[in-house]
Amino acid sequence: MSARACLSDDDVFALRRARGAPDLWPPLERLYGTHPSWAAFKPALEAAMEQAHAARSAPLRALDLARDLNPGWFQEPRQVGYVFYVDRFAGNLRGVLDHLDYLKDLGVTYVHFMPCLKPREGANDGGYAVQDYGAIDPRLGTMDDFADVATALRDAGIGVCLDMVLNHTAREHVWAAAARAGDTAAQAMYHVFDDDTLPRQYEETLVEVFPDDAPGSFTFDPAMGKWVWTTFHHFQWDLNWSNPMVFLEIFRIMTALMNRGAEILRLDAVAFMWKQMGTVCQNLPPVHDILQALRAATRVVAPGTMLKAEAIVAPDELVHYLGTGTHSGRVSNLAYHNNLMVQFWSSLATRDTGLMRHVLSTHFPDHFPNATWGTYLRCHDDIGWAITDEDANAVGLDAFRHRQFLADFYEGVFPGSFATGGLFQVNPATGDKRNNGTLASLSGLERALEAGDAGAIDDAIARIVMGHALIAAFGGIPLIYMGDELGLLNNHHDHLLPDGSTDSRRMQRPDMDWNKAHNRKDPATIEGRIFTAIARIMARRAALRRLHGRHPTQILDAPGRAVFAFRRAAPGEPVLCLFNFSEQAQGVSTDWLASEGVTAWHDLLADRALSPRDGTIPLPAYGALWIG
Ligand code: GLC
Ligand code: GLC
Questions:
Q1: Domain of 580: which CATH number?
Q2: Does pLDDT of 269 surpass 60?
Q3: Which protein residues are within 6 Å of ligand 1, measured from CB?
Q4: In a domain, 621, yes or no
Q5: What is the span of the domain harbouring residue 623?
Q6: What is the set of active-site residues?
């Protein structure tokens, strides 16, 4: 770099490359150092970074610079995510811009367009079987439409998140097509086997993801005359991440999407990216090397972007996706907190927060450097009851029976359950069951409306609102799943797919209801009550710098089993957050609050003074307080 007062973009790029090198090359060397292509791979990756930098537009470079100077930008309390299928929300990509006022009313700063790259024809796992990463699904628009919409959203203060499906491609992707035509270099992009000897050996320790719809993890491809690894459906071919060419190609795809304006990439199904005989082939240590290298390399080119890991796994595995040990602060910016989500539902069903306290305090540090949670209550997928024997035993529960209870409760068949839901992928071999359902139906709204029971409707709304107060305060970016803010109920039809199979996860993928959205400010309607409460929670969150993601989240032992409590330990101004998981009013003693460091009787959520009575602050049925 020459000694000039004014740095060029290329100088800045060189500085970023030097900064990133210690995070980038050691994991790549561990992954690929002994691979025959290693020597060719290094300059190829350098060239790919240069090309991606050269192609980055001036506005995106400005965004990069701003965020590089404010690396905690994504942890700011104004950040709120909204997750939707483009067709179900707005018909097509350009249609999204017709709903900016809606997103603004909700306080949204980040929208996740559910899979919208060109999928294979026919069944495509809700878009998670991508045929062409360079094209948008033609039913939704074109790549130019995407770039325009992303620019318009950015101008409105909203960033766009896209799915990056990097564990597998569709069988119709060009690499797979070449592999099927006999191209051996293309076959090396996947896990291809001449016969089923090795697949059978791997299968001895693999766990089935879709035991019901798509049993087995390998598929025989008649065109190729060989077997290929397919963790999910037979048309989703797992990429071979032990081949450095896969890393290089996916890096090119990721930076191309970032250069079209994607600010966040959701890295799909990352737990499955590395295979090793004799293991479950999930969460293996090299996965974290891959993620670290992807973050380091994309940060050289596009530091204004971030990566979100989707690993829906047990607590001890999940924690690594936000960076632990040598990967600390280097792996992902965001990871879904599926354990918070599971524990929310478990505590609601039992009215007892013992397991929730145990899991969240035992397995997770109170904060992570350079990373934070995506907190959520529902998403497009099923709920898998990721509760281990050890955790259940620690609080006197039998894990298997508790998981069965939760599955029955949220299917709605357990006596006294308030929920209406469905089952997903019941595994007869293990007895495991997962659940479907929207937030509102699982929270009791569907059943309460059918019964015409006003009290039960109030309870259901209160559960929905309390849950949002929880994910808004916990630390991380709260992700609102489309329709939850209006109390949309289960979609009981339309589960049939083009190939004649069904996907019952469509239960939680209803169409947007714009009639209800129109009522969003009308307190006489259920949708108005829910929307107003959630928008208010997000507005209060945005106003409270004490909820910044860098402040620790310390789980507390609140008196009363139904109450879940944590402290957001902002220096000098802690906030104590309390949530009542039962329909019985609770009280919290001011002595206990004082012993936990809070002496100001102010509810920051409702923004009003609290009046303790007889040394107790009341916490209504399914209520939430942020005291400080
Ligand atoms: C992710 C998606 C899920 C999909 C799977 C395979 O977990 O959330 O919907 O089925 O990956 O791509
Ligand atoms: C499980 C898997 C996830 C998968 C999902 C499908 O949660 O861990 O990867 O996509 O099931 O619904």
A1: 2.60.40.1180
A2: yes
A3: 125-126, 128, 165, 232, 268-269, 310, 380-381
A4: yes
A5: 553-627
A6: 268, 310
